[in-house]
Amino acid sequence: MMANNSTAQNNAIITAPGGEHDRCGWFQPCRGVRPPAMTSNGVVWRLVLLGAPGVGKGTQADLLNQRLDACHLSTGDLFRAASKQKESEQSPAMRAAMEHMRRGELVPDSTVWEMVRERANSIRCSAGFVLDGFPRTLGQAESLRRLMESEGIPLTAVVNYELPLAEIVARLSGRRTCEKCKAVYHVTGNPPKMDGVCDRCAGKLFQREDDWPESITVRMAAYERSTAPLIEFYRVQGLLVSVAATGSPDEIYARTMSALRARA
Ligand code: AP5
Q1: In a mutational test of the pocket of ligand 1, which residue from 28, 167, 186, 216 has the highest number of ligand atoms less than 8 Å from its CB?
Q2: How far does residue 185's CA lie from ligand 1's centre (Å)?
Q3: Mind listing the pLDDT tens digit for each residue in 177-221?
């Protein structure tokens, strides 16, 4: 269970080791280099990013983390980092989670929530946060709602990225990820300067197992069945902001911020 938080804890900017653009941390912290970015009425950005696999949530979360200096939680990154642990150090639930992930299925809610709850302190980050890939089911969304309610911390908005399926599949099949810092590239859309080598840390680039065609089909079906209903869940709460995920990452970032500011 989470400890009760004092005002001092609420105001502290949570910091943790990790490079400036490193997505591999459990929770990519804000760097605390400047005062928190806020909406026009002084609200800190606390965002959930929704959208189909490969729509570009991770790419946008990275930009939001860099430019708003908000904390970044990617449950997919959490699971991929856990998969690097020795098998003997992994719990049975975590080994089962890896299998689900390889096949492109969702990890059971209980395992996901265990992981997120361990890092629940981070929702108090005074610079705000970006949740990327969580929540992904109505059960997870309810757990998050209860946690935030108990902390007295509201979400600012839920950004739903939209893109035609053909473009999503093209993005996924060309994705390459750095094995060291987890920076994300695309073989044609956003290639590294040197083939197979990360521009940021010179790490080796690899293709994710769940980006193989058979897993992509399973992931899309899981999205339609379990995650798409969250669009309505957040719409009725008045939190949903839909953004077209077409164009360059910078264009989408600008579109996201102008939609968020218009709403704020
Ligand atoms: P996760 O890692 O969250 O995968 P995902 O949601 O399927 O999302 P992706 O990371 O595939 O895509 P993205 O939208 O972040 O796109 P990206 O920016 O990389 O989860 C993986 C697995 O973990 C799940 O399948 C599940 O098993 C498990 N899991 C995780 N969280 C869970 C949860 N809460 N509950 C249950 N299970 C969970 O971009 C994709 C590509 O497009 C890249 O190559 C990128 O360079 C390129 N690109 C991005 N933007 C653009 C652009 N504007 N123009 C051209 N190319 C672009």
Answers
A1: 186
A2: 12
A3: 999 888 899 999 889 999 999 999 999 999 998 898 888 999 999
Tokens linked to 90: 């992994």
Judge residue 130's burial from the number of C-beta atoms within 10 Å of its C-beta, 0-12 exposed, 13-18 middle, 19 or more buried.
Answer: buried
213-264 pLDDT, tens per residue?
888 999 999 999 999 999 999 999 999 999 999 999 999 999 999 999 998 7
The span from the CA of 2 to the CA of 12, in Å, is 16
Q: Is 122 helix (H, G, I), strand (E, B) or coil?
A: helix
**Residue 119: per-residue pLDDT:** 83
**C-alpha 258 to ligand 1 mean position (Å):** 23
- Give me 40's structure tokens: 């026009």
**Chain segment 46-95, per-residue pLDDT in tens:** 999 999 999 999 999 989 988 888 888 899 988 888 888 887 888 888 88
Note if 204 is an active site residue.
no
| Minimum CA distance residue for ligand 1 atom 56 | 189
- Total-model pTM: 0.86
Tokens representing 205 are 């680039």
Alpha carbon 110 to its chain centroid, in Å, reads 18
138, exposed or middle or buried, with CB in 10 Å at 0-12, 13-18, 19+? Answer: middle
**Buried b or exposed e, range 199-212, using 16+ CB within 10 angstroms:** eeeebebeebebbe
